[in-house]
Every structure is written in structure tokens, then in C-alpha cells.
Sequence to fold (222 residues):
Amino acid sequence: AASGKTAEQLISDRDLYASEEICELAQSFVRRRVAGEPMPYILGEWDFYGMTLTVTPDVLIPRDDTIAVTELAIKKALFLEQNPRILDLCTGSGCIGLAIARRVTLGDVSPAALRVARQNVGSQRLSGRVKCLTIDVRQPAAPFLGTFDLIVSNPPYVTTAEMETLDPSVRDYEPHQALWGGDDGLDFYRSIGEHYTKALKKGGYLCLEFGMGQGDDVCRIL
Fold:
């Protein structure tokens, strides 16, 4: 990453000297990693579901755990009408919606996160099919949004107590706005249940990621 070369180029150029600038940059990467900063923030990108996405400290790092809700949403989307409307709430980097990538709206309350999502829309060449909108799930769904065949979300779900015990690489670097879900971690599920089930078409699907042990509570809320 410091050299700006692919792994293949680095191997083929292994007999060449690295410049002083490249050495200094590589050393700064090492210092940041040793200090606990996550690798995706150092590199500025991370792979998710076959895509290389821009990642900054304004968004959560896409994780393999989220592939579960992504694949669920993709399977449900197969049974929707032609050209379905899909909303990815609390989109962050846009990783889930871009993986579905048919006709998707990406919504997040964070302007900084939406800038990252827009970058990823452009890099995946999906600008004609994917919209990015400022959406606060804690407020009623705006009428102009209309209704959706599928809504998918990986909302904040870390409890107040869990915030104190998070690994430093998460607690000290990733955006708290994207992590903290209220005292019991369920605030956003209550808001989605109250405000966004109304934005689902009849027979539509709501796909949610949630934390370990929260499944029964989320089902009760819905």
C-alpha cells in the first residue's frame, strides 16, 4: 500500500530499492497499526462481498458478519417484482446496498458517511441505479421516499455497557454514532419498527442485522 503497487508488481520489483518516501510512509503505517488503528482506516479501503470499497473513520468497517444479512436481502430480492425499490437504512459505507445493487436508495443521518457511500457508488459504477439520501431513522419516513419492496439495515446496536468493553481498535477509532444503540442497544429497532414498516409495500421484506442475544427482543419490537 505504501508503494502504491499491487502484490504482483511488488514481487516483480523486489530487487529495486524503495524510495525514502515509501519507507517513511510504510513506517508510519506500522506505527498506526501498533497503536491500534484498524487496517482498513490505514489503507483507506476494504473488501466486502467482492467489492473494494472506500473506508474512512466516518463509517464502520464492513465486516464478514454483515454478509449474513446481505445474502438474506439478496435472496429476498430475487422474489420481488421487476425493478424493485430497495432502501438500505443506516447505510454507512453503502456496503449492503451496493452488494444488492439493483435499484437501491442508501440512507444515513451522517453527511460524512454519505460522502463515503457516494464515493463507493461511483467506484462501483452504479451512479445511475443507486441514490444517496440523508435519512434519520429516528424520525418518521418522509412522504417523498414512497414505499419499498425491501428495506435492509445494519443499525447501531451496541449497548451503553458494551461500549465500555469494546476492543480499543473499535472504541477508539470507529464512529460511535454508528455503534451505540441506546442503553439496551435497541433504540434504532424501535424507530425502524415505528417509522419504516409503514414504508414497506404489502408483502415486502425487512432484513435486519442485530447483536448476539438481541434476536428475541427485536422480534418482540417488530
Notes: The first strand starts at residue 45 and ends at 48. The chain has a mean pLDDT of 93. Residues 145 and 152 are 15 Å apart (CA to CA).
